[in-house]
């Protein structure tokens, strides 16, 4: 189902004026393959059961009200504007997912581990990456040292993948998670049981709105085809321009002593090559 | 239109010969997450300083120090921040300090120290929950590992004062013991008197933290 059919459904309550403006927004994505991918992601969210459709409708209503064609990167700018205006409401609109009974992993730059997760631990920000990696590998710095830090940033989804799917080297990890902005340094992972994520912190199906949370076009996101859901999404594999590792999202949370004790730090590896160029045209046919 | 992301070599060619004022403006805009023509847009979970940290490291691996960046960042850090603006949006200042620390901008140490000393900047939280002054302490600690002992000693009173704030205890005590090992017993005793319930927790990792910091001191050529 495309957005255009979705907004015509009387149950979704879009007026003729709103429908006209949303059609214009939809058509204005027809600039390049990257933008068409974002548009297709919305189509798939309309057709799947991953998202809370009340919030998707509210999002689209807001788009219709705020859209200003012919102004800069208008279709993307309005997405950022709508999200920023009601972050609390549009944060993590995906439906909760059942626990897998296994673990998830969150991947990050090694220096981000130092910056965000080790501030209660009394460790200087200047620690060299080689020394940090060595400390993680030897267990000198481990999960318990995350006690008192925060998993993720407020008002941003935390992206995780099933622990057993993460490749064993940094370049493959980077590519299969679609982390096209990472060209240097080391990657680490934080592993924790998904049973830790319950209630408001439950794992959720990733949606186009999540994919745009940090900026509408700063991320490569590919929705699974409709129908289906709620279910895990997948990243975009930069190397194959096909589906990457499964991924889901959850809310940020404070890490207390109990949670920290259940977390495992690992060094994924050192980035050795630049990310592959993104083939959006191929991506559109293979995802 | 979506442009391909430039490689680090291409970015380096664009930036390394820029003058100080232009570079300061670029860094300032980036820290505030404004669009900068010379730099690619931020990726998912990418922080404003990341590309500059990576560039500096990439150049260092090729034996190029990029002094213009360290100087630009140090000058930005010297500016006395407006407390109201920082309270409204502390992220950019915390990110500036982080950038200074990761690229070894030792000239920024006095500017960072000023932020730590200011009572009107107390209790301000960065987006991920760390307080601004703790971030500054962690950055200053590492930068001081890169200067001479005499230059470090000037800041010992600052770290001693930081022992008064429980959230700052781990890094403050680590810095004091690493920079002034002879004073260890005195500093630990002071924590025991001021924050007795925190002492055991802080002591658990003190030796490890001091060892890690002393390794940074040992690895540096003093005063770049």
Q: C-alpha Rg of chain B, in Å?
A: 18 Å
Tell me roughly what share of residues is in helical segments of chain B. 55-70%
Average of pLDDT of chain B? 93
Distance between the termini of chain B: 43 Å
Key descriptive features of the protein:
heterodimer, A: 287 residues, alpha+beta, 6-stranded antiparallel beta sheet, two-stranded antiparallel ribbon, 8 strands, B: 224 residues, mainly alpha, 14 helices, 63% helix
SSE layout and pairing:
The complex is a heterodimer of chains A (287) and B (224).
Chain A: H1 3-6, H2 16-27, H3 33-47, H4 53-66, H5 74-85, H6 87-90, E1 103-109, H7 110-117, H8 129-138, E2 150-151, E3 158-162, H9 170-176, E4 186-193, H10 208-211, E5 233-237, E6 242-250, E7 253-254, H11 257-261, E8 264-270, H12 280-286
Antiparallel strand pairs in A: 1-3, 1-4, 2-7, 3-6, 4-8, 5-6
Helix pairs in contact in A: 2-4, 3-12, 4-5
Chain B: H1 8-15, H2 20-31, H3 50-61, H4 67-78, H5 83-88, H6 91-103, H7 109-117, H8 132-144, H9 149-153, H10 156-162, H11 169-179, H12 184-194, H13 196-204, H14 206-219
Task: Characterise the protein shown here.
The complex is a heterodimer of chains A (287) and B (224). Chain A is of the alpha+beta class and 287 residues long. In chain A, helix 2 packs across helix 4 (53-66), helix 3 runs parallel beside helix 12 and helix 4 packs across helix 5 (74-85). The relative contact order of chain A is 0.19. The longest helix of chain A has 15 residues, at 33-47. Chain A has 12 helices and 8 strands. Chain A has helices at 3-6, 16-27, 33-47, 53-66, 74-85, 87-90, 110-117, 129-138, 170-176, 208-211, 257-261, 280-286, and strands at residues 103-109, 150-151, 158-162, 186-193, 233-237, 242-250, 253-254, 264-270. Chain A has a 6-stranded antiparallel beta sheet. In chain A, strands 2-7 form a two-stranded antiparallel ribbon. In chain A, a hairpin with a 4-residue loop joins strand 5 (233-237) and strand 6. In chain A, 36% of the residues lie in helices and 16% in strands. Chain A is globular. By secondary structure, chain B is mainly alpha-helical. In chain B, 63% of the residues lie in helices and 0% in strands. Chain B has 14 helices and no strands. Chain B has helices spanning 8-15, 20-31, 50-61, 67-78, 83-88, 91-103, 109-117, 132-144, 149-153, 156-162, 169-179, 184-194, 196-204, 206-219. The interface between A and B is large, with 48 and 54 residues.
């Amino acid at each position: 189902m495309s957005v255009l059919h979705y907004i015509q459904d009387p149950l979704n309550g879009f007026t003729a004026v709103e429908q006209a403006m949303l059609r214009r927004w939809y058509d204005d994505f027809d600039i390049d393959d990257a933008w068409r991918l974002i548009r297709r992601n919305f189509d798939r969210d309309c057709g799947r059961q991953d998202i809370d459709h009340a919030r998707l409708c509210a999002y689209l209503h807001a788009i219709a009200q705020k859209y200003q064609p012919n102004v800069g990167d208008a279709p993307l700018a309005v997405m950022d504007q709508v999200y920023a205006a009601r972050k609390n409401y549009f944060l993590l609109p995906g439906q909760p997912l059942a626990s897998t009974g296994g673990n998830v992993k969150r991947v990050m730059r090694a220096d981000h581990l130092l910056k965000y997760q080790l501030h209660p631990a009394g460790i200087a920000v200047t620690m060299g990456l080689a020394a940090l990696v060595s400390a993680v590998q030897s267990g000198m710095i481990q999960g318990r040292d995350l006690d008192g830090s925060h998993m993720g940033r407020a008002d941003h989804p935390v992206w995780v993948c099933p622990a057993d799917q993460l490749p064993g080297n940094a370049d493959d990890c980077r590519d299969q998670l679609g982390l096209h902005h990472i060209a240097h340094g080391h990657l680490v992972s934080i592993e924790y049981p998904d049973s830790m994520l319950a209630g408001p912190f439950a794992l959720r199906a990733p949606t186009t709105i999540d994919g745009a949370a940090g900026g509408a076009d700063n991320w490569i996101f590919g929705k699974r085809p409709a129908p289906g859901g709620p279910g895990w999404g997948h990243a975009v594999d930069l190397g194959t321009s096909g589906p990457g590792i499964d991924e889901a999202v959850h809310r940020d949370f404070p890490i207390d002593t109990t949670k920290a004790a259940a977390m495992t730090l690992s060094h994924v590896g050192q980035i050795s090559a630049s990310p592959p160029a993104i083939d959006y045209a191929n991506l559109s046919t293979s995802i | 239109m979506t442009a391909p992301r430039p490689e680090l070599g291409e970015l380096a060619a664009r930036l390394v010969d820029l003058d100080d004022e232009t570079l300061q403006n670029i860094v300032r805009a980036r820290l505030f997450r404004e669009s900068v023509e010379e730099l690619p847009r931020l990726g998912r979970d990418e922080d404003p300083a990341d590309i500059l940290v990576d560039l500096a490291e990439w150049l260092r691996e090729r034996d190029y120090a990029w002094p213009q960046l360290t100087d630009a960042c140090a000058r930005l850090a010297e500016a006395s921040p407006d407390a109201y603006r920082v309270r409204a949006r502390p992220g950019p200042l915390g990110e500036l300090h982080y950038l200074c620390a990761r690229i070894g901008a030792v000239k920024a140490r006095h500017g960072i120290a000023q932020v730590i000393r200011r009572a009107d900047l107390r209790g301000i939280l960065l987006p991920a929950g760390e307080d601004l002054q703790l971030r500054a302490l962690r950055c200053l600690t590492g930068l001081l590992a890169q200067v001479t002992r005499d230059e470090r000693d000037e800041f010992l009173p600052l770290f001693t004062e930081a022992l008064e704030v429980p959230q700052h205890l781990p890094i403050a005590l680590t810095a004091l013991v690493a920079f002034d090992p002879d004073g260890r017993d005195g500093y630990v005793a002071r924590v025991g008197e001021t924050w007795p319930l925190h002492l055991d927790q802080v002591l658990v990792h003190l030796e490890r933290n001091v060892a890690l910091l002393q390794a940074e001191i040992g690895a540096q050529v003093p005063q770049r």
